[in-house]
Amino acid sequence: MSFARRSLFFSGALCLWALAFPLHLSAQAQTSILGFTPSSAARESAVENKFKAIPIPDEERHQHHIFTAEPHVAGSPRNNELARYIADEWKQEGLEDVVIRRYDVYGSNPKFTSLEMVAPVHYRATLREIPVLGDPDSKNKSISSAWSGMSASGEVTAALVYAHSGNPEDYDLLRQQGISVKGKVVLVRYSNPYSYRGFKALTAEREGAAAILIYSDPAEDGFKKGPVVPKGSWGPEYHIQRGAITYDFMVPGDPLTPGWASLPGAKRIPVEQATSIPKIMALPLSWHDAKPLLSNMDGPVAPADWQGGLPIKYHLGGNRVRVHVKIEMDNSTQPYYVVEGRIRGAKLPDEWIVVGNHRDAWVFGGVDPSSGTASMMELTRALGKLSKSGMRPQRTIVVCSWDGEEMGLTGSTEWGEQFAGELRNKAVAYINVDEATSGPSFHGQAVASLAPMLVEATHSLKDPSGKTLYEAWKTSAARQRREAKQSAEVTDLNLADTRIGSGSDHTVFLNFVGVPVLGLQFEGPYGVYHSAYDDFFWMNHFGDPGYRYHTLMSQLWGVLALRLANADLLPFDFATYAGNIREFLNELQKTISGQPPSAVPPGEAGQPPPLDLKPLLAAIDDFEAAGKRLDDSTSRALASGSVDPELAETINHGAMEVERNWLNPDGIPGRPWFKHILYGARFTYAHLELPGLTEAIEKQDWPTAKDQSEILRRALVSNTKLLNDLNSDLSVK
Question: Which residue has the higher pLDDT, 1 or 385?
Fold first, then answer.
């Protein structure tokens, strides 16, 4: 999740590197780009080449240094100062309609946190990160102590229990060992397997725990992975992964205005009715502070897969170790600020391409989010320079700097809720960059209809390795699949990640508004997430020395925005989308087939339940066939060399409606804010396909499963008709 001084330290090296590996391809203009006629593609290629030549590593580094100069948590004076800085920069760059929007939201800040072991020996947790050699920012006195956003306030002295990763199955094992956590404090790890800390908190709250301590075990992100800061990229002994525990998998955004914008004076529900506000105390720990607790625990030896990276035997505890936890929070309404600017479209100003990155960070935010913020600032500088030279996009490009993402996806959610109606009428797509880079491996996400366009765009960019970005992406994807022991061959059809969960600012666009989304990120070994060591020093030594991937991100981000903004016919591939939906359904069919007989209530004569997925598969086939016909028709229309503007408007607006038609106004059962019937997220933030149908089947709630199946079938039928109508329009013209 998870945004001035200027140094020329790397300038010589960067100049030599730029000569060796130009970041943009200077080949002849392309005459084939998805969504463009040949002549339009040639013009677009020329525009892109001029755009790609503008972002430079020195400017990326300069902006990154500004945004990582001081801690800037949501709601802080420094974060608000950066909002004003962004607005001023955008105005100077030539962006139009620059405005800072205020949302009064239920925010979270610490007053006091403490943790002591009171038995069998005394130990007071430091709850601090110590400075490291060579990193001046690690000495900054503004660095906070350990705290968890949206933690409840309180005080308790109780026994401590080790609950592994804090997932429901972990508490099942504790029960099997005769250990209850009710009224006790639980100690859990951040990963193994990964789950969002808010889900860990909710699970502990449901189990009756009084408080939850979440620590970073070196097996996950420390010395067991490799050299630690300052000698390597992994987390040192004192690193603390801060983070919010907001239950934003239920309702993201301001907890007191669920489903509507938290504008000044807006209606607010009582705190007691807010489903996303935790009722449990929570505190993050370094392994330095966790080790004394674990070392003194008694009780059964933890299972082998619960053992961690520390040189001790992990026990389940529950009796011998007692801790005193005290937390005082200032959880109250405070202003968050979203910065918005745009470059108005020359011909289609009421069709929007929205791009965004969040600004707020837990400390300095070297990777999360300031690498993305730096790339965004170079993106806007380049777009502004093009606009000033007369190269204005056909559609409007809207740029947003979000606030409060780390607290609960807050700023983007409130903005999306405020402009939901306008976005449903005007938004073509949203392109999100949270973290621009923590290493060299590209990870691209997209709804399936935009996946081919994303893959195509990577052919036009040069990776710092000397390969095209496309080639580098395929290479890293193949390596990652081998390491994960996945047998699927990497192809253009499965290169982009179309399994989209939550945890960043795309959520409101996809799951609430119904806008197609893309997400861009370069990844690498990154063990300092949300800690004070995620800073300028870390980026310059480990994440992206030379700021080459920052620059590449600005270029890729801009190329995608420009292609969507300038396309004659929007480059949606609905046949690919249909294939993706079929894949989702086939996986769900395996889930049903794999359930034990006792989980499947009998129908007549003892037969399996009447949840027949064949009508859905048939509807997908029809949708795919309609998508292929439309793809063929649009290809012919574009190849002819010109498309009638009125016809293009009809086709494009119809294509934009497809994503809106995947919305169910009633939302997912139990989580009505989340309205998309194809894409959702589990409580862990993990991707969840066909969410309403999948959750009903997993709960063995067959009546609800049948209802959700019918909702999906009707949406498929509706979109098939829409595509057939659009194809008819193209054929007639």
Answer: 385
Instruction: List alpha helices for 273-396, DSSP H.
Output: 287-295, 370-388
Half-sphere exposure of 509 (CA within 13 A, CB side): 28
Give the separation between CA 485 and CA 389, rounded to whole angstroms: 50
Helix (H) or strand (E) holding 482: helix 469-483
The whole-angstrom separation of Cα 206 and Cα 217 is 24
- Confidence band (pLDDT; 50, 70, 90) for 194? confident
**What are the pLDDT digits (tens) for 433-464?**
999 999 999 999 999 999 999 999 999 999 99
Pair 407, 276: CB distance under 8 Å? no
Determine if the peptide bond prior to 284 is cis (ω within 30°): no
Q: Over the stretch 691-712, which tens digit does the pLDDT of each residue have?
A: 999 999 999 899 999 999 999 9
Burial class (CB in 10 A: 0-12, 13-18, 19+), 559: buried
Q: Which long-range contacts (CB under 8 A, 24 or more apart) does 688-691 make?
A: 688/501, 689/499, 689/584, 689/587, 689/588, 690/584, 690/585, 690/588
Confidence band of 474 (pLDDT split at 50, 70, 90): very high
List all residues 6 or more positions away from 323 whose beta carbon is below 8 Å from its beta carbon.
Answer: 115, 116, 117, 118, 157, 158, 160, 185, 213, 293
Q: What is d(CA 688, CA 588) in angstroms, rounded to the nearest whole number?
A: 11
Output the six-digit token pair for 693: 């149908």
**Does pLDDT of 590 surpass 90?**
no
Element at 18 (helix H, strand E): helix 11-20
pLDDT of residue 13: 32
Confidence of residue 60 (pLDDT cuts 50, 70, 90): very high
Q: Which has the closest alpha carbon to 423: 335, 521, 518, 511?
A: 511
Beta strands 123-124 and 148-149 are unpaired
Is the pLDDT reported for residue 10 higher than 50? no
pLDDT tops 50 at residue 579: yes
Q: Which of 464, 397, 338 is nearest to 60 (CA)?
A: 464
624 to 263, 569, 640: CA distances (angstroms): 42, 19, 24
Instruction: With CA atoms as reference, report the closest residue to 560 among 423, 455, 454, 468.
Output: 454
As a whole number, mean pLDDT of residues 394-400 equals 98
DSSP 27-73: -SPPS--TT--HHHHHHHHHHHHHHHTS--HHHHHHHHHHHTSS---
Residue in the block written with tokens 């837990």: 362
Angle (CA) 73 79 84, round 5°:
165
3-class SS of residue 94: coil
Reported as a single tens digit per residue, the pLDDT across 127-184 is 999 999 999 999 999 999 999 999 999 999 999 999 999 999 999 999 999 999 999 9
Residue 575 burial by Cβ neighbours in a 10 Å radius (0-12, 13-18, 19+): buried
0.70 surpassed by pTM: yes
The span from the CA of 568 to the CA of 488, in Å, is: 35
Evaluate whether 203 touches 234 at the Cβ level (below 8 Å): no
Q: What is the dihedral of CA 204, 206, 211, 213, to 10 degrees?
A: 10
**Of residues 134 and 599, which shows the higher confidence score?**
134
Q: How far is CA 330 from the centre of its chain?
A: 27
With 0-12 / 13-18 / 19 or more C-beta atoms within 10 angstroms meaning exposed / middle / buried, residue 602 is exposed
Provide the pLDDT confidence category of residue 38 given band limits of 50, 70 and 90. very high
Q: Which residues of 609-630 are buried (b: 16+ CB within 10 A; e: fewer)?
A: bebebeebbebbebbbebbbbb
Identify the residue whose tokens are 């799951």.
511
Instruction: Residue count of the chain, please give it.
Output: 733
